[in-house]
Amino acid sequence: MGTVTIGVSIAVPEPHGSLLQERRAGFGDAAAHGIPTHVTLLPPTEVADTALPAIEAHLTEVAATGRPFPMKLSGTGTFRPLSPVVFVQVAQGAEACTWLQKQVRDASGPVARELQFPYHPHVTVAHGIDEAAMDRAFEELAEFEAEWPCTGFALYEQGADGVWRKLREFTFGRSTVPPQAGHVDRGSLPTSQL
Question: pLDDT category, 13, cuts 50, 70, 90?
């Protein structure tokens, strides 16, 4: 039995996701190309690889209780000096993200965990780089905006190479089939409102 590092997040769709990833790399953040642009629901968490089926079942249930909501990113913020991060702000959808992450980390579920900092939905655009580059990220993306309907979230696994790869998407209101061929869908669950 081994362990894997997983995360759960809402992907920032194209063309915005690639644009912010390229900008992050341009600011000198070496991790940029290994991290798809996202809003975190579950930060990196080490779990037993045998726990993945239970985690997928739990996330299917969480998704089944959700419904699509509008997401809007607008402007920048920072966690400095507490944490060396510059981010694009979630201007709309923050309340729904907060609700979702609580469901994902629910104490009765397979990925129950406490957070190091209070939850604050955001899209990281610079992390752990020099102060001048952090300032540049903060200033250059201050006018950035993006909007889309959020229809679900995804489970990711961090590879040995440090790259995060999508394992499965979860669509609100129903269960979904993962990208792996031959997987049997667990069946639809009743839909309720967020």
Answer: very high
